[in-house]
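in:
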């Protein structure tokens, strides 16, 4: 990296970390929502329907 980029990153390090963490958490939450929906937890039938 050049000096301008290094200086900009040093000046905005807190903001860059915040954006990185926010994007990472959004990706994780969306993945968990997708996996929960894909697993079909809500689609199961009641176990005692046959009685």
């Amino acid at each position: 990296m050049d000096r301008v980029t290094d200086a900009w990153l040093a000046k905005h390090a807190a903001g860059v970390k915040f954006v990185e963490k926010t994007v990472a958490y959004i990706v994780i939450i969306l993945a968990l929502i997708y996996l929960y929906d894909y697993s079909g937890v809500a689609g199961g039938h009641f176990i005692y329907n046959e009685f």
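note: The chain has a mean pLDDT of 84.
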